[in-house]
């Protein structure tokens, strides 16, 4: 059985045999990403697939890179939703504070609302007060979350497309690994069958 891999423990690229190290690209991480987690994800996949040949290593490396991309997309999507939450707070406050304001004072009310939304993000005490006020008008956390998804709906479609595309490519590569191994097993079986036949005896046609 495969031993469990901790994503908090550092892993080096030593899992790749020296003759195949040239096939393994250097990590291309974004600011804030953890190199140890990257190596841990890659090591876990290499151990599960157990590549032996150059072709299998190429496929395993691509699968590991796609798996890291998917993890990256999920993290970025979560941070995106956190960013849009401030916008959702601002939009909800606007429904309360700007509605019914005389046109001459709407610009001031808009600025006040933007400042309140910024306070919600930066000041924990102000955030509690603002959330209590929103609840008093019937806007609980679920209502705010719904507004988040409304605000971020177009960019969420992009992330969904990225995740689905990476998942599809990963499944195709896993299938390719299995097909490659089955092909090798068939070739070995054919070689063994031919070696088992006496000299001068033709193999029966199928």
What would your notes on this structure say?
- This protein has 206 residues and is an all-alpha fold.
- It contains 6 helices and no strands.
- The protein has helices at 35-49, 54-97, 106-122, 124-136, 141-151, 153-195.
- Helix 1 crosses helix 2 and helix 2 packs antiparallel against helix 6.
- It is elongated, with a radius of gyration of 28 Å.
- The two termini are 39 Å apart.
- Residues 1-14 have low confidence and may be disordered.
Provide keyphrases for this structure.
206 residues; mainly alpha; disordered N terminus
Helix content, binned percent? 55-70%
Give the low-pLDDT segments. 1-14
Largest sheet, in brief, is: none
Radius of gyration: 28 Å
Given the structure, what is the number of helices? 6
Give, in order, the helices and strands.
HHHHHH
Euclidean distance between termini CA atoms: 39 Å
Overall pLDDT level: 85
Structural class: mainly alpha
Total number of beta strands: 0
The shape is elongated
Taken as a percent bin, the fraction of beta residues is: under 5%
Q: What is the compact description of this entry?
A:
This protein has 206 residues and is mainly alpha-helical.
Write the layout of secondary structure elements.
Elements: H1 35-49, H2 54-97, H3 106-122, H4 124-136, H5 141-151, H6 153-195
Helix pairs in contact: 1-2, 2-3, 2-5, 2-6, 3-4
């Amino acid at each position: 059985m495969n031993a469990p891999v901790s994503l908090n423990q550092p892993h080096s690229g030593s899992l790749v045999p020296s003759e195949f190290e040239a096939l393994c690209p250097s990590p291309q991480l974004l600011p804030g990403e953890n190199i140890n987690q990257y190596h841990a994800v890659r090591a876990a996949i290499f151990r599960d697939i157990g590549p032996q040949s150059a072709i299998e290593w190429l496929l395993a490396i691509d699968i590991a890179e796609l798996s890291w991309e998917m993890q990256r997309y999920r993290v970025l999507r979560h941070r995106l939703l956190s960013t849009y939450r401030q916008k959702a707070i601002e939009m909800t406050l606007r429904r309360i504070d700007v509605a019914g304001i005389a046109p001459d004072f709407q610009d001031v009310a808009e600025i006040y609302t933007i400042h309140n939304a910024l306070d919600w993000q930066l000041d924990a005490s102000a955030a509690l007060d603002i959330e209590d006020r929103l609840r008093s008008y019937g806007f609980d956390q679920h209502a705010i979350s719904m507004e988040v998804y409304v605000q971020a709906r177009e960019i969420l479609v992009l992330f969904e497309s990225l995740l689905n595309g990476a998942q599809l490519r990963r499944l195709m590569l896993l299938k390719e690994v299995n097909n490659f191994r089955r092909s090798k097993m068939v070739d070995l079986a054919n070689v063994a069958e031919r070696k088992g036949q006496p000299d001068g005896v033709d193999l029966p046609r199928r």
